[in-house]
C-alpha cells in the first residue's frame, strides 16, 4: 500500500476528467459520456469564437454538468418504481413530443412493480408529471451548482450547471428560461450531452439529426449551426470515437496555463465527490463524512502521523464512490435483498476501485475503497481477501464503515444505540474485523463527553476485546 506521500503537479483537468467516470455511472451513461460531451462542446465553442477564458469555463461546466445527478435518484425510484440508472439513460433520448413522452412514461414506470402499482404510477405521472419533473431537475441542478461552488468554480460555471436543462423555446426546466436568458455554457453543454447520447446509441448521422431537429426548440440555432459545421470534420469524429479519449481530454484544457490541484484542493475535491455519493440515498446522507470521522479517530488512537491520517481521510471520503453505479431500487430496498440484488450491491467496491485506479491523485487509495467489505476470515467481498491480505488502512475504514452502518438509519431497520452496535461488533472481532482497530474505536468513542454512558463502560469495552 502506498504511504500517502504528497502529490505534486496534479492537473485539475486530468483529475476531473477521470472523476467524471463516476458521474457517467450514476446517469446510466456509457463510460466517457461527460468527456465526449466536453469534446463536442469545446469544438462548438471554438467554432463560435469563444475566448480562451470562456472555453476554460465551458470545459469545466461540461465535465461537471452532472455533479447533482445523484440527488434525485431516490425519488425517481420511489415515484416511477423503476431503476434510476435505466430511467435516466432512456430519458435523455426523449425529445419532448407527446408521443415520445407517453411512450417513455408507459415503458419506464413500474418496471419493478406489479401491474396495479405500475398503473397507479403511470396515472400519477400523467396527472402531475410536469411538477414532478420540475422538482427532480431543480434538485439536480441546484445541488450540482452548490457542489461546483464548494469546489471553488466561478459563478459562470455554477450557472452553466444550474441551467443545463433549460430549452431555447422556454419549455425546459427548472426556471423555463428562454433564448438568451439561458447561459451560453448551458446551451452548449446540453447540445454536447444530446449529441453524445445519440452518437453512442445510434451513430454519427443520428447525432447530427437529433441536434439539427432541435434547433429553435431545445437549442439556440446559432449553436446548432456551429455544431453542424463539424459534420464533415473526420478528426473530430475520430477523436469522439476513441475509447481512451478520457485519458487525453485534459490535453485540450483551454487557457494559458493548466490549473494545478494542490493538497488542500485534493481534500476539497474528495469531500465534494463524497457529497455526490451521499446524495444518492436518504439513508446514506452524511455517511462518507461520518466514516471519515470515525476512521480518523481510530487512526489517531493508533498513532498515525497527520500526513498519513490526511491520506486516510481521503480514502474514507471516497470509499463508496462506486455506489453511484448501483440503482437506488437496490440501495433503498426496505426488505431483504434477493441473490441478484445482493450481487449488484457487491459490485460497488469493484466500481470504487475501478474509478479511483484511473486517477493518479487517488490511485493509491483505490485498494482501500475496493477492500472495505472484506473480512479477516475470507468471507467478505468482492475478492474474498483474508488475514494479512487486508492492510491496516483498509481494516480501519472497514471498522468505521460498519460502526456507521449500525448506528445510522437503514431502509430495513432503525439506527442502533451505540452500545448495541459495539456489542455486535465485539462478536465480529478476529473473524470479520481487526481487534486493534475495534479497540481504538472504543477508546476514541469513550472520550466523548456527550456520551457519558460510554465513559462508564470504557474499561469494560477494552477488556472485552
Describe what you observe in this structure.
With 465 residues, this protein is mainly alpha-helical. The chain has two domains: 10-261, Hypothetical protein af1432 (Orthogonal Bundle), CATH 1.10.3210; 264-464, Hypothetical protein af1432. Helices cover 60% and strands 1% of the residues. The chain has helices at 12-26, 33-47, 52-63, 73-80, 84-91, 98-108, 115-150, 155-162, 184-202, 204-213, 221-228, 234-241, 263-278, 287-301, 306-317, 328-331, 339-345, 348-357, 366-371, 392-407, 418-426, 435-446, 452-464; strands at residues 10-11, 260-261. The protein has a two-stranded antiparallel sheet. Helix 2 (33-47) crosses helix 9 and helix 8 crosses helix 9. The longest helix is centred in the N-terminal third of the chain and has 36 residues, at 115-150. It starts with 9 loop residues before the first strand and ends with a helix.
The total number of structural domains is 2
Poorly predicted regions: 1-6, 449-465
Main sheet: strands, sense, barrel: 2 strands, antiparallel
Fraction of residues in helix: 55-70%
Rounded to the nearest angstrom, the distance between the terminal CA atoms is 27 Å
Strand order of the largest sheet: 1-2
Average the pLDDT over all residues and give the rounded result. 85
CATH topology category name of the largest domain: Hypothetical protein af1432
- CATH architectural grouping of the largest domain: Orthogonal Bundle
Give the structural class: mainly alpha
According to CATH, what is the class of the largest domain?
Mainly Alpha
Q: Please, what is the CATH homologous superfamily of the largest domain?
A: Hypothetical protein af1432
Q: How many strand units?
A: 2
Count of helix runs: 23
Order of helices and strands: EHHHHHHHHHHHHEHHHHHHHHHHH
Our estimate of the beta-strand percent is under 5%
If you compute it from the alpha carbons, what radius of gyration comes out, rounded to the nearest whole angstrom?
Answer: 23 Å
Name the shape in a single word.
elongated
Pfam families: HD_5
Protein name: HD-GYP domain-containing protein (C-di-GMP phosphodiesterase class II)
Domain HD-GYP: 262-457
InterPro entries: Cyclic_di-GMP/3'3'-cGAMP_PDE, HD/PDEase_dom, HD_GYP_dom
Amino acid at each position: 500500500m502506498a504511504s500517502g506521500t504528497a502529490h505534486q503537479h496534479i492537473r485539475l483537468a486530468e483529475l476531473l476528467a477521470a472523476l467524471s467516470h463516476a458521474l457517467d455511472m450514476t446517469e446510466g451513461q456509457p463510460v466517457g459520456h461527460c468527456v465526449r460531451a466536453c469534446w463536442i462542446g469545446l469544438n462548438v465553442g471554438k467554432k463560435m469564437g469563444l475566448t480562451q477564458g470562456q472555453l476554460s469555463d465551458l470545459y469545466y461546466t461540461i465535465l461537471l454538468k452532472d455533479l447533482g445527478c445523484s440527488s434525485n435518484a431516490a425519488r425517481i425510484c420511489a415515484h416511477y418504481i423503476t431503476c434510476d440508472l435505466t430511467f435516466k439513460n432512456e430519458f435523455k433520448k426523449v425529445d419532448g413530443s407527446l408521443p415520445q413522452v407517453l411512450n417513455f412514461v408507459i415503458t419506464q414506470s413500474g418496471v419493478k412493480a406489479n401491474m396495479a402499482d405500475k398503473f397507479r404510477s403511470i396515472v400519477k405521472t400523467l396527472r402531475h408529471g410536469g411538477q414532478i419533473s420540475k422538482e427532480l431537475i431543480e434538485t439536480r441542478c441546484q445541488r450540482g451548482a452548490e457542489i461546483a461552488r464548494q469546489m471553488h468554480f466561478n459563478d459562470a460555471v455554477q450557472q452553466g450547471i444550474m441551467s443545463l436543462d433549460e430549452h431555447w423555446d422556454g419549455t425546459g426546466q427548472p426556471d423555463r428560461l428562454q433564448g438568451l436568458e439561458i447561459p451560453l455554457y448551458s446551451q452548449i453543454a446540453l447540445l454536447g450531452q444530446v449529441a453524445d447520447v445519440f452518437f453512442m446509441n445510434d451513430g454519427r448521422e443520428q447525432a447530427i439529426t437529433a441536434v439539427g431537429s432541435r434547433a429553435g426548440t431545445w437549442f439556440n440555432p446559432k449553436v446548432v449551426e456551429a455544431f453542424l459545421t463539424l459534420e464533415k470534420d473526420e478528426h473530430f469524429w475520430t477523436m469522439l470515437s476513441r475509447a481512451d479519449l478520457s485519458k487525453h481530454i485534459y490535453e485540450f484544457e483551454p487557457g494559458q496555463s493548466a490549473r494545478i490541484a494542490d493538497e488542500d484542493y485534493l481534500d476539497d475535491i474528495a469531500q465534494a465527490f463524497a457529497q455526490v455519493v451521499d446524495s444518492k440515498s436518504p439513508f446514506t446522507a452524511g455517511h462518507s463524512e461520518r466514516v471519515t470521522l470515525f476512521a480518523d479517530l481510530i487512526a489517531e488512537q493508533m498513532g498515525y502521523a497527520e500526513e498519513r491520517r490526511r491520506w486516510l481521510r481521503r480514502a474514507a471520503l471516497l470509499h463508496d464512490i462506486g455506489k453511484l453505479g448501483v440503482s437506488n431500487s437496490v440501495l433503498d430496498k426496505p426488505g431483504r435483498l434477493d441473490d441478484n440484488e445482493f450481487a449488484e450491491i457487491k459490485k460497488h467496491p469493484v466500481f470504487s476501485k475501478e474509478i479511483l485506479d484511473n486517477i493518479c491523485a487517488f490511485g493509491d487509495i483505490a485498494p482501500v475503497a475496493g477492500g472495505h467489505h472484506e473480512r479477516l476470515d475470507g468471507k467478505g467481498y468482492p475478492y474474498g481477501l483474508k488475514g494479512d491480505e487486508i492492510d491496516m488502512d483498509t481494516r480501519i475504514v472497514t471498522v468505521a464503515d460498519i460502526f456507521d452502518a449500525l448506528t445510522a438509519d437503514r431502509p430495513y431497520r432503525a439506527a442502533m444505540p451505540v452500545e448495541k452496535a459495539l456489542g455486535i461488533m465485539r462478536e465480529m472481532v478476529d473473524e470479520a474485523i481487526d481487534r486493534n482497530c475495534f479497540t481504538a474505536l472504543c477508546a476514541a468513542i469513550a472520550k466523548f463527553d456527550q456520551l457519558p454512558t460510554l465513559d462508564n463502560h470504557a474499561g469494560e469495552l477494552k477488556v472485552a476485546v
